[in-house]
Specification:
The complex is a heterotrimer of chains A (141), B (283) and C (715). Chain A has helices at 7-15, 17-22, 116-139; strands at 2-3, 27-33, 36-45, 48-62, 67-76, 81-93, 97-109. With 141 residues, chain A is of the alpha+beta class. The longest helix of chain A is centred in the C-terminal third of the chain and has 24 residues, at 116-139. Classes of the chains: A alpha+beta (141), B alpha+beta (283), C alpha+beta (715). Chain A binds chain B through residues 45-49, 78-79, 110, 113-118, 121, 125, and chain B through 27, 35, 38, 41-46, 116-117, 153-156, 221, 257-259.
Chain lengths: 141, 283, 715
């Protein structure tokens, strides 16, 4: 997606984890946790409700290249399952700045019984919502 | 399963009051065939379940002239056997008869089916092709929702918290219209469709198509109308070329999910094949 | 000598009324006062090191009576032959679902809640998902301490294997194979693959265990209770006679319930709490973490002479054994039915190499005819492909190569047993093999043979004054009709109404019994029932049962006991002829009709036999067309029977079964085993029929519509 903002601004927002985390639809109780953040992500699919409590941290970053990898780990207390995701960010260009987001999500434990297609679809929606919020946040700076 | 409170209101208004009170942690149970499975797997953990079975008015099937209203609590089995349903469109009755197994059909309901919003289900596909409109009510009033606006995503409808489905209304079909429902079951016969197609057409005295509806199930996150395919038929004779073209357009309109029933590529191809077969049948 | 027509009259199943009226009591139904419920913490990773386990919150939960982790049972492992499976993992988890902790609580809900409150920190390790990866020279070794594992006594030590990630590895050969290949006019090579599939018994496995002063009492779904007792004694370090296993009603088995994993942990939970503890497996866990049929990859190579006769044959088979070998009871830790490919055919020289491999997938175990469906699918598809390449009709090619009496078979032994050629001919005739068919329809053939089992057991009979007879046996009845078999044989031999013969099952406190499995019950327990009945007849000295009974004093009874050792080698055989229609546009396969020509020798229970043959057909139908316990990154994708598709009655085609016997069955009254005879050949016959109908050849099971569609488009 393309954002009409300087690359430095986009990068700054992305690396400001508490701000970036609040951009994920369904998150609440976001608080710093060491170098990263912790919080809760509420997922609702029809009658199914999950509350994933976990952390997000920067696994690696290369500001010059404009790439970073975030690692998210969350557990659902109710079901006894967990989600583990790597989110890869790539920023190129400079006003307009192009942001590419890709993710590698592993669903562990009983949440997996929901069915991978459902989870993959929901993850897509979450990422889309995240990207939209990011754009708005950057525009506000 | 988490301990929960179970209430069975006697009237619709009572049910709506209860739902308005705590929409977030309350789930509605019609036949229970999907909900109870989710609850047993702990995927749904409501504090309260509202059972609708005492609200008899929601079971009614009422034909009026060429229109028909199907109560949300009518079971698939009752709908399949209903004379009124069969008179409206035999394909509608056979759609309800195609759901799962006899055990499910005698328990599961139309309203529960629509609210569950699994894109591989049978009734929504034919109801879409028959221009169905859902009627929903909450404590604050009633709303008419065309079916193609009811389904938002997999397992998601546009129903608001506190809203209950009352019935689905079907308008009169154009004179001479023919309808069919094709359920593609390549594995076992009790399964959800890998893809399914409902087609409704009407032609004039010259054989030109005056009315076309093509709806597809199992072909995307929601049951969908292949509108471009429909438009391609109107005004044309339903010959091989027209049907073939429409089928290709229908396939192109799909966004199938890769799952245990087949790859997206296969489902898309099958959407085309079964659209063609459906159209040949009603042409 | 009795008139065998006595067996024509349909039997009345002993367990029939209880099971159909709901009176039957399964483990989950048993009323055990004070019993706690168990639940388990399972690994979400296919391969990981356990860094820490925190049970604090679980222990604090009201109603939780005991919490155990791997540290509490360190060093204890279970298994049917090689005990390589930790009761609870203390170091590493080796598959998704491997158990890390156990909870005993007042109710199932509390136990499940406690499981959710246990947090485990894992360090993920690279997972070996693919068998080829596991067998690379530099592959990580999944069981570095294998030398320390107990190998249960019976027949020697664990055989050596070439690679540390082999569970078992065998090479068998006869004849000069290389020379035979060198002389062959044509040589063909093909490869085939089959997935894991599940036994899918209606009742998931369950067990309840409690401790008495000097006894450990077990009631569980294991269908070989003496074996379970011995395995528990070895794992837990207890004397065998301290453990009493008393397994009653089992709701289906199909091989899966030969492996027990709960009972061992239940012992520790019972010890920790002083109360009985019960575990009933969730069906999702039954499907995803218990011991399914091994997935396989089989490569076959066969050399033919100029007349299209087999002169040489070679097989390389890999079976995915998963994380533990514990589910396999044989000394070679092999899916034994998968070794001798081209069974039933004349094979002058053959070499077979087969291996079971450690991977980070769900552990494999025994399922109806272990190894054979994989074998027959590969073998019969291979033969069909060769026939077509040679321009010979598949049926004619089989006739040319089927083993006739005295011919060398793939195992190197001369063939003696059912007339295989006659069975093939009969099946073909019944399906109308020579009639021309409309386009899109085809016929496929397959031949399956299955050994008649061996073993030893003791059955005793007691005749009471009221004229009734009680037969006592250590074998259970998991729905296979084992008790009805015993009842019928005793009644027929003594000339009495079967309803006057009761069958009582004894616990492991009774005489030694080998349990159900290995196609042994008809020859072994049937043979013992026959021996006991004959012994009773002798003891009556010419009197009829009624007269002898009347002569008894009020508290008198006549008792006999017979120990029977079934050692004779024999086979049952089944020729399959199946007709299908293939919709070329969609790839959909519809089975139109099927014929089974079977030699099961003398039929003892006609209704039960139909159940086994028809049921075996449906079992094979599922493997052929719809069943696939697919894994994704080591995790089973289908966790319920809505996604793991079993055939319904609507999917079963018209099925005709014809009986043809050479009359030389070694079982009681000439009977042969039947339970595992039919399912192996069905997938092959269907794949062959699909090829005949459409030209599409599918080398991987199940033969789904999509696979057929892709095969057609690839042509």
């Amino acid at each position: 997606m393309t954002i009409d903002a300087p690359r430095a601004t986009v990068w700054a927002v992305l690396m400001d984890l508490p701000v970036a985390a609040r951009c994920v639809p369904g998150t609440r109780d976001v608080a710093p946790d060491g170098d990263g953040v912790r919080g809760t992500l509420d997922v609702r699919v029809g009658p199914i409700k999950l509350s994933l409590a976990g952390t997000v941290a920067v696994e690696s970053r290369d500001e010059a290249a404009g790439t970073a990898r975030l690692r998210a780990n969350a557990e659902d207390q109710r079901l006894g399952g967990a989600v583990r995701a790597f989110v890869d960010l790539a920023v190129t260009g400079d006003k307009p700045t192009d942001l590419q987001i890709s993710s590698d999500i592993a669903i562990l434990g009983r949440i997996g019984e929901l069915g991978q297609p459902l989870i993959a679809r929901h993850a897509d929606k979450v990422l889309t919502g995240f990207a939209d919020c990011l754009r708005r946040t950057v525009a506000a700076r | 399963m988490r301990p929960f409170e179970y209430v069975e209101p006697e009237t619709l208004d009572e049910a709506l009051e209860i739902l308005a009170g705590d929409p977030d942690d309350t789930l509605v149970m019609a036949g229970g065939t999907s909900l109870v499975i989710l609850m047993k797997q702990d995927l749904a953990r409501p504090a309260r379940v509202v059972g609708l079975r005492r609200i008899a008015q929601l079971r009614e099937i009422a034909a009026n002239g060429g229109t028909i209203a199907l109560g949300a609590l009518a079971t698939h089995g009752a709908l399949a056997r209903s004379e009124a349903v069969r008179r409206h469109a035999p394909a509608l009755a056979s759609t309800f008869a195609a759901v799962a197994t006899v055990r499910i059909r005698e328990q599961a309901t139309l309203g529960g089916n629509l609210a569950h919003a699994d894109p591989a289900q049978d009734p929504p596909v034919t109801l879409l092709a028959l221009d169905g409109v859902a009627v929903a009510r909450s404590r604050f009033g009633e709303r008419r929702i065309p079916l193609d606006a009811l389904f938002a995503d997999i397992f998601e409808t546009s129903l608001e918290p506190g809203e209950l489905l009352l019935r689905v209304e079907l308008p009169a079909l154009p004179a001479g219209a023919r309808a069919t429902y094709k359920k593609f079951l390549p594995a076992t016969l009790d399964d959800y469709a890998t893809v399914s197609v409902a087609a409704v057409v009407a032609t004039d005295a010259a054989g030109a198509c005056t009315h076309a509806r093509i709806a597809l199930g199992g072909a995307g996150p929601v049951p969908l109308r292949a509108r471009e395919a429909e438009r391609s038929l109107v005004g044309r004779r339903l010959d091989d070329a027209a049907i073939h073209e429409a089928a290709a357009l229908a396939a192109a309109a799909t966004d199938p999910i890769d799952d245990l029933r087949g790859s997206a590529e296969y489902k898309r191809a099958m959407a085309g094949v079964w659209t063609e077969r459906a159209l040949r049948e009603v042409a | 000598m009795i008139d065998p027509k006595i067996f024509d009259r349909p039997e009345r199943r002993i367990d029939g009324v209880d099971k159909t009226t709901g009176a039957a009591r399964y483990i989950a139904d048993l009323d055990i006062p004070g019993a706690l419920q168990a639940a388990f913490v399972r690994s979400p990773y296919p391969h990981a090191r356990i860094v820490a386990v925190d049970t604090t919150r679980a222990r604090a939960l009201d109603g939780v009576r005991a919490v155990l982790t791997g540290a509490d049972v360190r060093g204890q492992r279970l298994g049917r032959r090689l005990q390589d499976w930790p009761l609870l993992c203390w170091d590493r988890v080796l598959f998704v679902g491997d158990r890390v902790a156990a909870v005993a609580a007042d109710t199932r809900e509390i136990a499940d809640e406690a499981v959710r409150l246990i947090s485990v920190e894992y360090e993920e390790l690279p997972a070996l998902i693919d068998m080829d990866d596991a067998l690379r020279p530099d592959a990580p070794v999944l069981h570095p301490d294998a030398a320390s594992y107990r190998f249960l006594e019976g027949r020697g030590e664990r055989p050596a294997v070439p690679h540390p990630n082999h569970q078992g590895h065998v090479v068998e050969s006869h004849g000069d194979v290389d020379a035979a290949f060198a002389r062959a006019a044509r040589i063909f090579e093909h490869e085939f693959a089959t997935p894991r599939i599940h036994q899918a018994a209606l009742e998931p496995r369950a067990a309840v265990l409690w401790l008495e002063a000097d006894r450990v009492r077990v009631v569980s779904t294991n269908k070989a209770p003496f074996n379970l007792r011995d395995q528990m004694a070895a794992s837990l370090g207890l004397a065998k006679d301290r453990i009493v296993v008393d397994n009653g009603t089992i709701g289906g088995d199909f091989g899966g319930k030969g492996l027990s994993t709960d009972e061992f942990v239940l012992y520790h939970l019972a010890k920790a709490t002083g109360r009985p503890v019960r575990a009933v497996t969730r069906y999702a866990d039954e499907l995803t973490t218990t011991n399914p049929r091994h997935g396989s990859r089989i490569r076959l190579r066969t050399g033919l002479d100029a007349e299209g006769r087999i002169v040489a044959h070679e097989s390389h088979a890999l079976f995915d054994g998963g994380a533990y070998a514990a589910g396999k009871p044989t000394v070679r830790l092999m899916a034994e039915g998968g070794v001798q490919t081209l069974e039933g055919y004349r094979v002058p020289a053959a070499r077979h190499e087969a291996a079971t491999v450690y991977t980070n997938n769900v552990p494999g175990g025994h399922m109806r005819a272990p190894g054979q469906p994989q074998n027959v699918f590969a073998s019969e598809s291979h033969l069909d492909l060769i026939a077509r390449e040679l321009g010979i009709a598949p049926l004619e090619f089989r006739r040319r190569n089927v083993a006739r009496a005295g011919d060398p078979t793939t195992a190197g032994e001369p063939w003696h047993g059912p007339d295989l050629g006659a069975l093939l001919d009969r099946a073909a005739a019944e399906i109308g093999g020579d009639k021309p068919r409309p386009a899109g329809r085809g016929i496929g053939f397959a031949l399956g043979i299955r050994h008649v089992g061996r073993g030893k057991t003791t059955i005793s009979l007691r005749l009471d004054r009221d004229g009734t007879i009680e037969a006592r046996t250590g074998v259970g009845d998991q729905g296979g009709g084992q008790h009805t078999l015993i009842q019928r044989i005793v009644a027929a031999t003594l000339g009495v109404d079967p309803l006057t013969v009761r069958v009582r099952r004894l616990s492991t406190e009774g005489p030694q019994d080998p349990g159900i499995g290995g196609s042994r019950v008809t020859p072994v327990h049937g043979g013992a029932a026959l021996a006991a009945a004959r012994a009773l007849k002798d003891k009556l000295g010419g009197l009829s049962v009624a007269d002898a009974a009347r002569a008894l004093a009020p508290d008198q009874a006549i008792e006999v006991s017979a120990t029977f050792d079934a050692t004779a080698a024999d086979h049952g055989a089944c020729a399959h002829a199946i007709e299908v229609a293939v919709d070329a546009e969609t790839g959909t396969v519809r089975v139109l009709s099927a014929v089974l020509a079977v030699d099961v020798g003398q039929v003892i229970n006609p209704v039960g036999l139909r159940g086994q043959l028809e049921g075996g057909f449906v079992y094979g139908l599922g493997m052929a067309l719809t069943e696939d316990l697919a894994l994704e990154d080591g995790r089973v994708r289908a966790a319920n029977l809505g996604d793991y598709k079993l055939p319904t009655i609507a999917d079963v085609p018209p099925l005709r079964i014809v009986h043809l016997s050479d009359g030389h069955g070694v079982g009681p009254y000439g009977a042969r085993s039947a339970g595992e005879l039919v399912n192996p050949g069905v997938p092959a016959a269907i794949a062959n029929a699909v090829h005949d109908a459409s030209g599409a050849r599918v080398h991987t099971l199940p033969v789904t519509a999509e696979r057929v569609w892709r095969a057609l488009r690839a042509r």
